[in-house]
Amino acid sequence: MVTTQIFYQPWVFVRGVPAIKFLPPEGPPEIAFAGRSNVGKSSLINALVNKKGLARTSNTPGRTQELNFFVPETTSEMDGELPPMAIVDMPGYGFAKAPKDQVENWTKLVFTYLRGRATLKRVYLLIDARHGIKDIDNKVLDLLDQAAVSYQIVLTKSDKIKKPAVEKLIEATRGRISKRAAAFPEILATSSEKSEGVEDLREAIIKSVRAG
User: Fold this and answer.
1) What domains are defined for the chain?
2) Residues forming a β-bridge with 34
């Protein structure tokens, strides 16, 4: 059984990174959350660590403008089972209420981070269950494949559609990524509002961190 106790420890915000030169030194393993603007990244991170308000949420697309780093307050391993790690909340891509040059800067920051961060173990690419994979998501999938960055699809807001539709979407999504070299084959369905699938995500994260 995978121990997920680390997510029930106090987590803290470390820093926001507006440019690559401000990245913290490479240290513990990192997992990152990516997705279209307003897909629910911040809400899922808050549910993941069971702490409201750790990651800022907003109804305004593009609110997250930096790479935001979070770590457990106690980073030492407990009983040799809990690896220290960091969670990175990445700026949403796609539509954002911001000047074009600012959006381009965010995009460059994210993609440079993905390509060059040796401590990055996996990217969790969030897809709104109500809409599925869109063209802009496919472009990000292409980049992740090219960069050889391991990633896993996580469906968000799965409580907003009926259960049979969720199962159908999981199968369809699995088919769409089946030939992508860097894609992890298991698709996770989550609901931050109802805490559905969150424990499965915790277990997946621990496995990905340990695998490295």
Assistant:
1) 5-124+134-149+197-211 (3.40.50.300)
2) 125
Question: Rounded distance, CA 176 to CA 75, Å?
Answer: 37
Cβ atoms 187, 170 nearer than 8 A? yes
Q: Are 39 and 80 in contact (CB under 8 A)?
A: no
Contact 120, 148 (CB under 8 A): no
The pTM of this model reads 0.89
Query: Which H or E run includes 100?
Result: helix 100-116
Cα–Cα dist 108/73, whole Å = 30
Name the E strands within the chain.
11-17, 30-35, 67-72, 86-89, 120-128, 151-156, 188-189
d(CA 37, CA 114): 18
Write out the chain's pLDDT in tens, 212 residues. 578 999 998 999 988 898 889 998 898 999 999 999 889 998 999 999 998 888 875 444 444 578 999 999 864 444 444 458 999 998 888 765 667 777 777 778 887 888 889 999 999 999 999 999 999 899 889 988 988 889 999 999 999 999 999 999 999 999 999 999 899 999 999 999 999 999 999 999 999 998 86
* Pairing of the two strands 188-189 and 151-156: parallel
Give the C-alpha separation, 49 to 70, whole Å: 10
Nearest-angstrom CA–CA distance, 130 and 38: 13
Distance CA 130, CA 142 (A): 22
